[in-house]
């Protein structure tokens, strides 16, 4: 059996493992069942791709989406790994099946729906299977944010194959990790947690205030590829159109599109170095693009797990990236309504708990990263120096009295009206509507001064996020379980004062000074990728080109020492890269 370190250098172009990769690979090579929790961008795929090259037989990879499988196959093939996928998009399935049965494949990717069919199981009985890797393993747990029932059906197949199993995920809290271990038959001592920190991502969370303008400002500051997660199909189309209007390449992605349009937009995004994709969560895990420079949420995600998973699409190459969340109180109102009307009763308590954790995250005046990491069971420093609250600490204000007045106004107006109307009553606005409803005579009429009135909107937003106020389908506000302790003075309400627009924002120029040699190498890569019919990052990552620009290798031997330059890539692209470097210098 070949030394894993030799394979790491020859195939992947690296001289040392990162983080816990070595621990995971060692367990797999010993045939031990393992669950590894590693942040997106930490190199999970290498943990099964390297053993797939080293071991005798084929590694079966269970993956949830066709686009993700196709991207993995493309990247693995670029490194000289014999990889294929069996999906509804596979053009010659019989050829793939023959390659599996003849032992020609190192890797075979399949969806759980196919993996659990009787036909596929019978076919594997005639093949030599060295490892079963279950990617996005949180899908097996009903506690996870992306539960897929078909993942629950994998256990009999895995047990029958008697091959070691490796489950991988980037997002799983303690409860979800325990459920994955149980569902997939992995011992507790097989759990390896690498940590959840993504230090290269800068987190920003701001209330929505003219979302089109906010997104255009972000797109202007960040010229690289970006993803905007949208709450509806219509929003994806609108946001993409807005961004195109400002001159930015942009496209939409949602489940309601014609399949050829949806796949075409995704393919264009994967190959682009400056495009923005406005997508619903249907885009989900279906992207393995390493050079996404920002991820923005146009509305609040389902949970902290979902937020972490989706923002993890940014900066997988380790380069600086941004995560922006634009939220509104109505997001939480809709989410709570969904929990009470669409979620099974036995799961509602857990969903409420998740939503409350997300509300605390968006409202926080303290380090965003620390809150995320504590949620996943870590003990981080109090500050990270790379989130909005650390870079520009917001002022906090005790608004308990204002909150009590808002809650009282909702009660005195029969809980039939929205925030705008409550503000009129509290301001003492003696207009026709207020007088017609008789609310000019209630005790809360005109009890707020100008300073308090300026706080009504952010206070109402905080009350809705904390489930002290609930908005109905007609815009009326009623009490939630969090109202009583605030009204009785048993609980304070403290909110962060949003920073002014002049607050610090990282621009691409702050991350790296101008480098004409690097720019020339990127241009060469773009042309080479176009000729080869692959995305630019399949040729080389930005981090590799930056090293080449800094080290200026002048021979193939010297180029081979650069991270990310394995034997196959050196053979295919090495001389072309050296020629481009010589021309640029």
Automatic annotation (TrEMBL):
Gene Ontology cellular-component terms listed: bacterial nucleoid; cytoplasm; replisome
CDD domains for this protein: DEXHc_RecQ, SF2_C_RecQ
Coiled coil: none
Gene3D superfamilies named in the record: HRDC domain (1.10.150.80), P-loop containing nucleotide triphosphate hydrolases (3.40.50.300), Winged helix-like DNA-binding domain superfamily/Winged helix DNA-binding domain (1.10.10.10)
SUPFAM superfamilies: HRDC-like (SSF47819), P-loop containing nucleoside triphosphate hydrolases (SSF52540)
Helicase ATP-binding domain segment(s): 25-190
Keywords: ATP-binding, DNA damage, DNA recombination, DNA repair, DNA-binding, Helicase, Hydrolase, Isomerase, Metal-binding, Nucleotide-binding, Zinc
SMART domains assigned: DEXDc, HELICc, HRDC, RQC
Organism domain of life: Bacteria
Stored Pfam families: DEAD, Helicase_C, HRDC, RecQ_Zn_bind, RQC
One record GO biological process: SOS response
PANTHER family: ATP-DEPENDENT DNA HELICASE Q1, DNA HELICASE RECQ FAMILY MEMBER
Recorded family membership: Belongs to the helicase family. RecQ subfamily.
Protein name: DNA helicase RecQ
Annotated organism of origin: Sphingomicrobium sediminis
Gene name per UniProt: recQ
